[in-house]
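debug: dumping io for the single-chain case to check the tokenizer round-trip. Nothing else runs in this session.
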Amino acid sequence: MTKAAKPDPRFNGRDSSWMQFNRRVLEEAEDEKNPLLERVKFLAITGSNLDEYVEIRQAGLMQRIEDGNREPGYDGLRPDESLTTLTADIHAFVQGQYACWNNKLQPALRKNGIRLLEWNELDDDAKAFARDYFQREVDPLLTPIAIDPAHPFPRVLNKALCLALLLRLKRRSSGPTVLGVVTVPRALPRFIRLPGDEKSFDYLLLQDLIAQNLAGMYRGYEVIAQTAFRVTRNSNLYFEEEESRSLLESIRGELHNRRKGDAVRLEMETGAHAEIVQRLRVNFELDDDQVFHCDGPVNLSRLMAIYNEVHRADLKFQPFVPKALVLSRNSNGIFDEIRQRDILLHHPYDSYDTVVDFVRQGAVDPRVVTMKQTLYRTSNDSPMFEALIEAAATKEATVVVELMARFDEASNIQWARAMEDAGVQVFHGVVGLKTHCKLAMLVRRDEDGVTRRYCHLGTGNYNPVTARFYTDLSLLTCDPQITERVHMVFNYLTAHAEVDDYRPLFVAPLTMAESFLGLIRRETEHALAGRPAHIVAKMNALLEPSVIEALYTASQAGVEIDLIIRGLCILKPGVPGLSESIRVRSIVGRFLEHSRIYHFANGGDVEFYLGSADWMPRNLFERCEVVFPVRDKAAIARIHQEILPAYLADTVKARIQQADGSYKRVAKLQPNAPPFSAQEFLMQLAEGKATLDAIPAPGRAASTHPRLPIN
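debug: decoded output
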């Protein structure tokens, strides 16, 4: 028997930290203070989150085990130990998802006239409609298969919903059973709306409609049992660049090969016939603990359709209109405005239209001679692509398109081809590194005769759709130092032309890790010398051990450290002698917290940095990333007095991480604290309905570090 690895007391587990994050999302689905349809949306998000996690992280652990990799993770556990714990956690989580659906959401939906009906609940008119719909829309798309020596088990696509049937030939009533498989068409909606008035929202699951017609598809068979199932496959992206003619061709080949990934999870309806379960499990070569029984609709992420299709404003968050940028009175346009001041935008509170307009105006402005931009993820109908294509007709246009953005390759390949055809110079970054930085640069011959670079640097993707519900920061600047270094970054991306010094930018994988470690060490020295020492860092995840070790050392020296981390965090806060002055909070609410902000007190001479990188190994060492300083006084004041204080004062959506990796709501830790939601406040501020005085004192006072009990 293999001896278990010894856990590292300095770190929490990566997988348990991720499960804690998805539980926080599930809490939002359970929270009756959220509008009902928003709760349905949160539950759907937990489903899509779990899908991606299983096909990437769990699949990766299984692959490591099969490869004989026994290297322990951050918490000291080997891959096999992590997989055992992770699988048990996922089973418990799935039970929680369906308990939320069955016990809370579905009954509440029915009370509000939104019903997901079973066949026996339909009246005669609804059944007639459903039968007609099946004949017209569904039956032509179905291919029923009975598995026998002449008909092997079909290739089931990743996450495709299917029906499995246990069949027996009618002429051989005591003969052997065979398995049948019908794939539910992806081209059709999973929820079929039944006839009714505008206020009636009755639905029938597509799989249930197909199930009612199985006998007609297998006329020579007796249908003994049937169940819905779904298989999740390994979607890790592996390829060898040197074996391909180009990165683009390599990715295109990988898109095809991905369908051949090994199965890592089988989802089935609760109560499925034991023989069906066994046959599917054996066919997909899965262990018993890789079979998940779903007490409700298989694939909860599809519940997003109910959120999108049910137009009930009373059951959703009140609409929010982002604040539009107002140019100065003496400004002659966006470029004139940027010459006068840096523009800091906080999305979605500030409209993303400003960023889109910046790129669009660059495309049509005859004074702009060159445009360069990175694109990681964007919408299918992105105005960014259209602007770059338009720009190529009259000026030099260059784009660095990331083809390895997981699950976005097909869309990016399509646009890359279209831009190449239009004359845009398309590059795919540095071989072996994802291009994750968010940069756009316009070179303009201004009216005063000076040629200047204008840049947009951001923390989020160039995606106007997600910009409506992701919190991100944008900086528009023509600061010569910053824009010259942005130019050098583009040279690195297109020609692999490195320079020794990118300051004031931090550029991964070249200078960023050491730059951040240097700032943390500097803060440690300030604390030891008795000078103001405080670090506030907001990010998506904290996983890099060298950064965590530096934060531990800083804490022991007396540096106050507040971390605002939406997702994974393996650092252990509040541990005596290790991390007593470190506090970690996570905010999960209406908007997805996506911005990265890094604040260093620096002995009283405060510094702020924004960027695309989290403190994770992949961001610091395996991607092209850029973190940039905020220098404009008004922009600094906004981050220092508005944005960070609001997040640090949140008592509604904030959870505090405990040393063991669990999280507790601030509202439970401070039951007498007045309710304050950072996101609600920032919306009200954008609408002119609030002032900075509304931020509670613990967040507003720079010298006050909010301390919460850690149990």
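debug: round-trip ok. The longest helix spans residues 79-111.
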